[in-house]
Amino acid sequence: MLLLTEIAVKNLLYLDGEACRTRAFHGPLLIGGWSLGGLLALRLALQGFADGLVLLGATARFTRSKEESDLGWADLYVRKMMTGLVQNRQDVETKFRQLLLTEAEWEAGLGESLPPIGSWTTPALIAGLQILRSEECLSQMKSITCPVFLVHGTEDRICPYGAALELMAQLPQAKLFTIPACGHAPFLGREDQIANKLRRWWHEQQD
Q1: Matching PANTHER family, A to Z (predicted)?
Q2: Which pLDDT does position 92 carry in this prediction?
């Protein structure tokens, strides 16, 4: 999974084996990521591939100690999820999915936009959880000097809002768009609002 993201971005940045910045052909390379994708985006930025980042419901380090429960999940819980996927995948996916949205968001029907349970294979889900356990970008955040636009809900139960505040404190050029009473999928039902905020932010960076 990590290798595929690197290959994808290198295919954009390199032409015939020679380094050619995408901006010379298509403009700056803006990389976006949600949740696990946010970790992958941060990793690419650390390698110097990004001209800008858009991170939605993201964190620089998912697993945390008990003392940092306001920033992430305990590694033990993630390992139990991995074991549970093999034993009773339906149950694990159902419980995890319930955490994605707030009660009000479920009642508003936002859950209907989520892909159906079973959209990913069990090995893919386990691989994703393993990345969440092992990937750590937090200690290198100050090395990311490109502009970063953060979108985070205050009621996010997957990547707690504290993780967004942590990113804000660590990233030299970050801007945080906070969405009150919002869970882990801040883009659902707020597409136009976020798109307008994103465009305005990116235009400011170009200016």
Answers
A1: AB HYDROLASE SUPERFAMILY PROTEIN YCLE, MONOACYLGLYCEROL LIPASE
A2: 96
**CB within 8 A of 158, min separation 6: which ones?**
35, 57, 99, 100, 183, 184
Q: Which domains does the chain have, with CATH numbers?
A: 28-206 (3.40.50.1820)
Closest CA to 159 of 29, 43, 23, 33: 33
CA distance 48 to 206: 18
Q: 18-19 and 14-15: which strand pairing?
A: antiparallel
- Distance from C-alpha of 85 to C-alpha of 122, rounded to nearest angstrom: 7
